[in-house]
Each structure stands twice: as C-alpha cells, then as structure tokens.
Design a protein that fits this description.
Elements (H helix, E strand, L loop, with lengths): L3 E2 H8 L3 H10 L9 E2 L1 H10 L6 H4 L3 H4 L11 E2 L3 E6 L5 H12 L14 E6 L2 E6 L3 H10 L7 E7 L6 H12 L4 E6 L8 H9 L13 E4 L8 H15 L2 E2 L6 E10 L3 E10 L2 E2 L3 E4 L2 E9 L5 E2 L1 E2 L4 E7 L8 E4 L3 H34 L1
Parallel strand pairs: 4-6, 4-7, 7-8, 8-9
Antiparallel strand pairs: 1-2, 3-10, 5-6, 11-12, 11-19, 12-18, 13-17, 14-15, 14-19, 15-16, 15-18
Helix pairs in contact: 1-2
The chain binds guanosine-5'-triphosphate and magnesium ion.
Protein name: Translation initiation factor IF-2
GO molecular function, one term: GTP binding
Keywords: Cytoplasm, GTP-binding, Initiation factor, Nucleotide-binding, Protein biosynthesis
Length: 370
C-alpha cells in the first residue's frame, strides 16, 4: 500500500493541514506535517470528509509530471547534439539525411546494417551527432505541442534553384519559437539554375543574415545528390554544438522523449526513444507517456542489440504494455511497482479525458443538429 504525508493529504482534500492534524489527534494519531500516513489512516480521514479513497488519490504522480532534470554542474558531461532537418517540400531534406548517413554511418561500423528507427547517429572527426529522421515539421509541431523539446540544432534546407518558399518561412518560425539555432544548407548547388546569392538575399528578409554579409547565421553550400559540402556542414554542426555547450548527466536514471512508436506483429509495442539525460538500461522499469513496462530489449540505429545507452542516443525498445505516442516523455523508476502504478494512473486519466472529450463531441453534434 502507498502512503501520503499529512501535508499532501491536506492538499488533496483541500483542507488546512492543522485541521487534518487535529482530526488525526482525535483518532489518537500524533502527527506532524511531514508524517507519513498509512492507507488506513488516510481512509479514516477521507471518510470523515465523505471522500472516497481511490487508488488514484493515493498515488503521487507529481514525481512524473513535475519532472525536471536538475543536475549539479559537476555531474554534467558533454553530449552529442540532436539535429533535425527542415525545409520546403522537395528541397532535398531526405536526400541530405541519406547522404549524411551513407558517408558516415557505416565507416568503421563494418557489418552494421542501418535500420530505420526514426533517428541515427554518426561520428564526424571523433564527435557524435544525432539526426532525427522524422520530418522536421512533425518533430517540432507534435513534439512541442506535447511539451517536448528534442532538437538542439536545425538544418534549414533551401534549394538553390528555388529559393525561399512558404514552408521555408514556416520552418524558420518554428525554430525561432523554440529558440533553436539554425544552420542554412543551400542545397542543389550542382544545378545549372543554382543561385545561392538569391537565397542569402531572401533569407535576410527573415532575419537570417549570412556571416559573409556581416550577420551571424552559418550558410553552407551543398549538393545532397553529389555529396558535396557534407563535411563542411558536419563541421559547422560540431562548431555550433560547442558554442551551445550541450551537456547532460549520464549517471542517473534515464529520461527523454518518444521519437516514434508502433505495434509490431512479432515484438509487440516498439518505441524509438531519445535518451535526453541519464543512462537507459535493459531491465529498467519505465513509464512512457501513459504506457509502462520493463525495457525488455534495446536495439540501436545499426540494428545491434545494446545493454545501455547514454544521453542524446536514439534507441528502439520493447517491453511496454501499450503503444505510446511521438512526443511522449519517458522516465525510468527505481522499482517496477511504482512504474506500474504511475503508468496505470496515467492510463486511466487519459481514458477519462478521452471519454469526456467524446461525450462533449456528442453533445456538440446534438446541438448542431438542432
Ligand atoms: P519532401 O519530403 O517531399 O518534403 O521532400 P524532401 O525535401 O525530402 O526532398 P527529397 O530529398 O525527396 O528531394 C526532392 C527531389 O530533389 C528528388 O528528386 C531529389 O533527387 C532531388 N534532389 C535532392 N537533392 C538534390 C541535389 O543536391 N541536387 C539535385 N540536382 N537534385 C536534388
Ligand atoms: Mg522527404
């Protein structure tokens, strides 16, 4: 059974702590504000207020919801940057991601077969970089809508023969709202009609002024199809991530965000997680959004089984009771019982919310018909 402190119980019942303490005294329990109460005492007090005790009010979920990574400066270590690629339709986002992966991922990883897990990691000059493979806009909109911030750096792809287009502007706005630094990749430089100066000119109007023109935005000319300029681009990513001083504490229980998830016929719920702090291990009890379980197996972006992974690493896990959603936060708990309780409570809440939502919709439908 769970316990609650006197002060917490008072808060849940919306009463003064002193009132609760008095009632406890009446029951022969001498208590202070921080005293842990057992289930029986909680039920007695609650009954006195005509409040029925459900598991839910006993479970303290604040641990998950107010979860914030607070680490001592001395525990922080440099971590790889997490990069997303954004830009207008057809400007070459996918081709660029593939070009980067093909030039870097397999080097020194003989035998490793890159598999699609929604993210991958490369090593450039001894430094790792994590790329999110999800469409940049989705990464920003769905994830940010759910309170998750996963991106450290955005690569804005602009085709040199097409220039700034509506979704280019949208991408700039997303990155600015999230305060994520932008590196501009002027793509399709191999094309006859390529006009990088025009791209620079047009982006100036959106506040992105090239260093060459006295601004502070890095521009790199590339041809994703030919593989030109890829090394320069990676070099610039390393530079920006050094400036950003990206750090995390690897020596704590893991927390992070779901990149994508689906139901697999053979393996059940399969989720790609981005570990943002701490180290995730096989066997860890975990709550992922409103799902929970124990990490049964982990597979990295090369399709290899791994036992533990640190900050900024994408990894595919199995072992969850249900399929979470992209943008859901995850958190490891010290014991499985707690993970289960919190997972179940979150699941119930989510279902209640859905039920409310659908009954509201029905009412709306009704009114619309009248
Ligand atoms: P969406 O996912 O539809 O938004 O497009 P995308 O931005 O991912 O573009 P994608 O990589 O699919 O490329 C679109 C087209 O441009 C394809 O036909 C690519 O072959 C072509 N392309 C991409 N990069 C280059 C390049 O550097 N040079 C040339 N000539 N063509 C390119
Ligand atoms: Mg694409």
């Amino acid at each position: 059974t769970e316990s609650l402190q006197v002060g917490e119980l008072a808060k849940k019942l919306n009463k003064d702590t002193s009132e609760i303490i008095k009632k406890l005294m009446g029951l022969g329990i001498m208590a202070t504000i921080n005293q842990e109460l057992d289930k029986e005492a909680i039920e007695l007090i609650a009954a006195d207020y005509d409040v029925e005790v459900e598991e839910e009010i006993i479970i303290d979920e604040t641990e998950f919801e107010n979860y914030e990574v607070v680490d001592d400066e001395k525990d922080l270590q440099v971590r790889p940057p997490v990069v997303t690629i954004m830009g207008h339709v057809d400007h070459g986002k996918t081709t660029l991601l593939d070009a980067i992966r093909n030039t870097k991922v397999t080097a020194g990883e003989a035998g490793g077969i890159t598999q699609h897990i929604g993210a991958y990691q490369i090593t450039n000059n001894g430094k790792q970089i994590t790329f999110l493979d999800t469409p940049g806009h989705a990464a920003f909109t769905t994830m940010r809508a759910r309170g998750a911030q996963v991106t450290d750096i955005t690569i804005l792809v602009v085709a040199a023969d097409d220039g700034v287009m509506p979704q280019t502007v949208e991408a700039i706005n997303h990155a600015k709202a999230a305060e994520v630094p932008i590196i501009v990749a002027v793509n399709k430089m191999d094309k006859e009609a390529a006009n990088p100066d025009r791209v620079m000119q047009e982006l100036t109007e959106h506040g992105l002024v090239s260093e060459a023109w006295g601004g502070d935005t890095i521009f790199v000319n590339v041809s994703a199809i030919k593989g030109d300029g890829i090394d320069d681009l990676l070099e610039m990513i390393n530079l920006v991530s050094e400036v950003e001083e990206l750090k995390a504490n690897p020596n704590r229980t893991a927390a992070g965000t779901v990149i994508e998830a689906q139901l697999d016929k053979g393996r059940g719920s399969v989720a790609t997680l981005l570990v943002q702090s701490g180290t995730l291990n096989v066997g860890d009890p975990i709550v992922v959004g409103h799902t929970f379980g124990r990490v049964r197996a982990m597979v990295n972006d090369l399709g290899r089984r791994v036992k533990s992974v640190g900050p900024s690493t994408p990894v595919e896990i199995t072992g969850l009771n249900d399929v979470p959603q992209a943008g859901d936060q995850f958190m490891v708990f010290a014991d499985e019982k707690k993970a289960r309780q919190i997972g179940e409570s979150r699941f119930k809440k989510q279902q209640d919310a859905q039920r409310k939502e659908s009954s509201k919709l029905n009412l709306d439908d009704l009114f619309n018909q009248i």
